[in-house]
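#struct-pred

JT: dropping the chains for the assembly here, can someone run the whole complex?
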Amino acid sequence: MTGFIGDWHALAILFVAGVIPNQIWRMLGLWFGGGIDENSELLVWVRAVATAILAGIIAQIVVQPPGALASVPDWLRYSAVAAGFAAFMLARKSIFAGVIVGEVVVIAGKYWLG
Amino acid sequence: MALPPLDSPQWQTSFRAFLWGARSIGATVLTLVLFATYLGIGALAHDSGFSLGWTLASTAFVWAGPAQIIVITTLGSGATVLQSAIAVTVSAIRLFPMVVSVLPLMRTEQTKRRHLILVAHLTAVTLWVECYRFLPQVPRNRRIAFIHGLGLGLVSVCLIANTIGYALAANLTPLLAAGMLMLTPLAFLFSTARNCRELADVIALVLGLLLFPLAAMLNSGVDILVSGVVAGTIAYGVHRARAGIVRARA
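RK: done, full complex below.
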């Protein structure tokens, strides 16, 4: 089973770096959530920062791509996102349409470039 | 798929309600989006050098796509555990208002806090959206069981997607592997864009995308945090300024 789990050290790091810092907010919500207004100003700010962090992650994968994605030229990755976004808007905010068109552009473009 | 009417005998046992919840994963396109996202996460984890067991554990115990991607990309690119933990915890703050707003939908007078632990764990953006859609059609005393079914059903779908994505990344041609890695940013971009409720959310999304490349030049190890806090705070400032103008006019 060593191949499946890999090394236990990495799993311990997952808990310290990923599980605990993530779960803490859910458990805080469970314990102290009763008295907080979902539309309060603090939560508007929190939501805006969280959205911007998510946007940063999206940008990171596209701008500094990992693994096999790095073999796709910059302009093609950006074009795929732009085409996907256009499809998303045209199809009345269909996530599905956006993902499909973005994928078609990146795969067809890369195939064509060889 | 239509749920049975509120007074149907189908709702008499919690177990039945659990099954109706699990079946409801077939009634939403978001399941497909999650599948694509977790296919991408499986591929990303493979290409970043993590084991399959590690990837599945991250899905089962973190259960938040953005946090999982942050852990994989930061640790994979050499950040310290502390830097990853900070970025994850900031991204996870959004779970707090989600949990806060979702729990009152299923609380009854008999509900103890411990009955809601699993619901809190399962709460993430997809479940949060679906709670508002499905729960009005579920009798209040069966809602926790229903959400357990729905949430665990979604987790199972994602564990399967992870496994497929991981296996494919190891065996696909570079062309298709690149396509699969592209699934993550596309699915997240459009699902976030769809969830934008207010102007502040839209500005945060656009500025967050544009500021990251600038912040990345700092090479601080917490670039995502820097661009996120700056972009989010500007978006909030615009929201405040606009609210002020509206109030002044009124």
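JT: nice. Helices of chain A lie at 2-5, 8-32, 41-63, 74-90, 95-113. Chain A has a mean pLDDT of 87.
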